């Protein structure tokens, strides 16, 4: 019995889609994990990785957080007559988390963006971030810093190789 409990606690995370551009365009302040309400054929399309979260954003509606702009392609074998690939989808969060997120996003310049979508133990989840948009000079500074760190790592690598040889 002890082995079965340990196995059920392990989390298997299968990333479906990620918004790599978000970390470049936004300064990430805090991240949250939320479930996402999907229909049956949307789940199948998501498992086939037919998802794009690049244009998606979160917004409050009637005290809940909804995800706009998430594109899930139509599943080929679906029986539904009308398929809305960009419909508004409900995010599943605890009431206290919703309140915290809404309080933060009411501040000027902060927005709610998805960073990645994944399946965890069979459940569709989305990683959300409260973020502030970067200005052009912030982006250039981040690129310069990354290049400098890369150059330092190369120099250290050469230096270490020279000692061994």
From TrEMBL:
Alphabetical list of CDD domains matching this protein: SmpB
SUPFAM superfamilies the record matches: Small protein B (SmpB)
Location within or outside the cell: Cytoplasm
GO biological process: trans-translation; trans-translation-dependent protein tagging
GO CC list: cytosol
Presence of the UniProt keyword Amino-acid biosynthesis in the record: no
Keyword tags: Cytoplasm, RNA-binding
GO molecular function, one term: RNA binding
Domain of life of the organism encoding this protein: Bacteria
PROSITE patterns assigned: SSRP
InterPro entries per UniProt: SmpB, SsrA-bd_prot, SsrA-bd_prot_CS
NCBIfam families linked: PRK05422.1 (NF003843), smpB (TIGR00086)
Family: Belongs to the SmpB family.
Role according to the record: Required for rescue of stalled ribosomes mediated by trans-translation. Binds to transfer-messenger RNA (tmRNA), required for stable association of tmRNA with ribosomes. tmRNA and SmpB together mimic tRNA shape, replacing the anticodon stem-loop with SmpB. tmRNA is encoded by the ssrA gene; the 2 termini fold to resemble tRNA(Ala) and it encodes a 'tag peptide', a short internal open reading frame. During trans-translation Ala-aminoacylated tmRNA acts like a tRNA, entering the A-site of stalled ribosomes, displacing the stalled mRNA.
HAMAP family, sorted: SmpB
Protein name, UniProt field: SsrA-binding protein
Native organism: Rhizocola hellebori
Source taxonomy: Bacteria, Bacillati, Actinomycetota, Actinomycetes, Micromonosporales
Gene (UniProt): smpB_2
């Amino acid at each position: 019995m002890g082995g079965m409990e340990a196995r059920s606690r392990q989390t298997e995370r299968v990333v479906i889609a990620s918004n790599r551009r978000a970390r470049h365009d936004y300064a990430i302040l805090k991240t949250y994990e939320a479930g996402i309400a999907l229909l049956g054929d949307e789940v199948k399309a998501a498992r086939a990785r037919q998802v794009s979260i690049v244009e998606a954003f979160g917004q409050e509606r009637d005290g809940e957080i909804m995800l706009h702009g998430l594109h899930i392609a139509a599943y080929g074998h679906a029986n539904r007559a009308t398929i809305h690939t960009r419909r508004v989808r409900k995010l599943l969060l605890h009431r206290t988390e919703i309140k915290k997120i809404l309080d933060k996003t009411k501040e000027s310049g902060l927005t709610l963006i998805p960073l990645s979508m994944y399946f965890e133990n069979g459940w569709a989840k989305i990683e959300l971030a409260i973020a502030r948009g970067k200005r052009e000079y912030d982006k250039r500074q981040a690129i310069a810093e990354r290049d400098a760190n890369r150059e330092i790592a190369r120099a250290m690598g050469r230096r270490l190789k020279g000692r061994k040889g």
